[in-house]
Specification:
single chain; flat; about 180 residues; 5 helices; mainly alpha
Amino acid sequence: MMQAHETPPAAPRPDHRPGQVAMGLAALAVAGLLAWGAAAIPSDAGYAGVGPDFLPWLVCVAMAICGALLVWEALTGGYRDMEEPSGAPRGDWHAMAWVSAGVLGNAALITTIGFILSCALCYVLAVRGLRISEGKAGGGLMQVVRDVVTGMLIAAPTYWLFTKVLAVSLPGLTATGWI
């Protein structure tokens, strides 16, 4: 029997290192695939001496650094300063499914319905998933309308910035490119 001044024994902490190593190795594999694809892009310099292969190589290097840091962290201790979540552990598979549906829907529909509408759809689905992950309700019709409007208010200036200021072609729904 425990005395009043004794603390109960701590629950054993799960070992997250195998998962962390797997994530790091996956990031390194994606970096390798990006490097393979970037190597096939011609490096003719364009605007300000930057060729079309610059961004893929930049993303490749960033991904490789993140993957290497994840593996290094796992091998030297793994998620050292993370506290275990309070409450019962649960998976957020429903939230992950909503966010994934938003990203995949955006990729599948961007050339069909245009950048702004597909990004608004992505925003609506991703925000719903994030709400679910926090244990909040998905919201009613008014919440969906607010999310659509917010998504379009974020996507429209982004579209304008890329197409008008940076001269990057993005798919639009109309011949003029807007929407």
